[in-house]
């Protein structure tokens, strides 16, 4: 099954819409591959944690942070390949129910950073999996105005929230994130302290 | 073990009274870790760790994970949020989380203590633990994860080593638990 008929935005457009709404002090964990690289190009902040390896673990990093910092709204920008790899973490989030955790999944139904090989997100409805796992707020959006509306709504409600954003396979012309990983850690911790 | 603090012998003295006895009580084990600053515990249980997990649950200190790589990543997020994390696992789980330890913790300098049950120790265990039981210490050496094997007679030094290595290296460090050292269920 291909992405739904009709207007579908690129991942970078979706990320841009999200970044405009994310509060300045909110920590954001971004999964490896294009999501991190595109986010860096669109607008870097010290509160952004760019994950380069450990595929599948973005949500678990965000969950650990949400548990350690219950007063901060933690946002994870994830991909469908990452979620499928760390699928058990949906269960952990659903069981622990952190109110300050928003899980945004940019779903293009392919492994876009390694040559657009198809992912099982074409068949597996990740939003339904999140709902069954026990996320408090679950939405699935495609168009930009729906994304803006639902993300704003999630920011204002108690989580855990799961926002599945269907995006196209289009990728921006972006390089690696030009920061040393220990530097990412250091400035992230400083910004949060 | 806050960033400003340094572990001292005094800080780990709660493990003192058990030194020399046959087995370390899980309560003393957990208390020693708390005394040196560990305040976020997660992991996946193993028979050898049952007593420790029970103590952590009783003290409401434990966040169960579903896989060891998830546990390691939870520890990483907790560290970013200012916690001092420890992860419990069997050495089977060490295999599961190896990439996360190397491409997340080592790369980004996120320290965490790995409390690893040494299944397959000296080949006396179920067959699925045989290869890892034999290879674990050389595997840890190869991937440059500092490790030390806890013993009843050197527990004070072992915990001091944990605190010192964790602070100085800012990488995952492993404390290996052989059967019969900390009270738990035995395989």
Structure keywords:
heterodimer, A: 193 residues, alpha/beta, Rossmann fold, six-stranded parallel beta sheet, two-stranded antiparallel sheet, 8 helices, 41% helix, globular, disordered N terminus, B: 187 residues, 6 strands, 15% strand
Mean pLDDT of chain A, rounded to whole units? 95
Shape of chain B: globular
Helix percentage range of chain A: 40-55%
Number of alpha- plus pi-helical segments of chain A: 8
Tell me what portion of residues of chain B adopts beta-strand conformation: 5-15%
β-strand amount of chain A: 15-25%
> Portion of residues in helices of chain B?
40-55%
For the termini of chain B, the CA-CA separation is 33 Å
Mind summarizing the main beta sheet of chain B?
Answer: 6 strands, parallel
Shape annotation of chain A? globular
Low-confidence stretches of chain A: 1-5
- The main sheet of chain A orders its strands as 2-1-3-4-8-7
**What's the number of domains of chain A?**
1
Order of helices and strands of chain A: HEHEHEHHEEEHEHEH
Structural class call of chain B reads alpha/beta
Biggest interface found: A-B, 34 and 31 residues
- At CATH's second level, what is the architecture of chain A? 3-Layer(aba) Sandwich
CATH top-level class of chain A: Alpha Beta
Kindly provide the radius of gyration of chain A, computed on alpha-carbon positions and rounded to a whole number of angstroms: 15 Å
């Amino acid at each position: 099954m291909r992405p739904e008929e009709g207007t579908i935005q690129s991942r970078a457009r979706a990320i841009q819409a999200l970044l405009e709404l994310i509060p300045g002090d909110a920590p954001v964990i971004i999964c490896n591959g294009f999501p991190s690289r595109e986010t860096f190009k669109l607008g870097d902040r010290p509160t952004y944690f760019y994950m380069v390896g450990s595929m599948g673990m973005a949500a678990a990093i965000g969950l650990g942070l949400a548990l350690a910092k219950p007063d901060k709204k933690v946002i994870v920008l994830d991909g469908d390949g990452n979620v499928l790899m760390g699928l058990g973490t949906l269960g952990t989030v659903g069981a622990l129910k952190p109110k300050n955790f928003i899980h945004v999944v940019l779903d293009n139904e392919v492994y876009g950073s390694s040559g657009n090989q198809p992912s099982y997100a074409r068949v597996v409805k990740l939003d339904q999996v999140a709902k069954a796992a026990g996320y408090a707020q679950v939405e699935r959006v495609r168009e930009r105005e729906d994304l803006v509306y639902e993300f704003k709504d999630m920011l204002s409600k108690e989580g855990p929230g799961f926002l599945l954003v269907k995006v196209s396979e289009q990728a921006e012309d972006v390089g690696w994130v030009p920061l040393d990983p220990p530097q990412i850690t250091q400035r992230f911790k400083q910004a949060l302290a | 073990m806050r960033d400003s603090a340094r572990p001292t012998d005094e800080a780990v003295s709660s493990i003192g009274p058990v030194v020399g006895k046959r087995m370390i009580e899980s309560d003393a084990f957990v208390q020693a870790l708390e005394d040196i600053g560990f305040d976020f515990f997660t992991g996946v249980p193993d028979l050898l760790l049952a007593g420790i997990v029970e103590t952590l649950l009783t003290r409401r200190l434990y966040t169960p994970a579903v896989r060891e790589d998830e546990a390691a990543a939870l520890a990483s997020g907790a560290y970013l949020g200012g916690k001092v994390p420890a992860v419990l696992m069997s050495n089977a789980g060490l295999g599961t989380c190896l990439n996360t330890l190397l491409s997340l913790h080592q790369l980004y300098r996120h320290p965490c203590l790995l409390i690893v049950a040494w299944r397959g120790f000296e080949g006396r265990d179920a067959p699925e633990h045989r290869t890892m039981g034999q290879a674990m210490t050389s595997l840890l050496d190869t991937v440059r994860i500092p490790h030390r094997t806890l013993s009843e007679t050197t527990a004070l030094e072992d915990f001091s080593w944990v605190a010192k290595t964790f602070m100085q290296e800012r990488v995952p460090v492993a404390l290996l638990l052989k059967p019969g050292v900390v009270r738990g269920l035995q395989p």
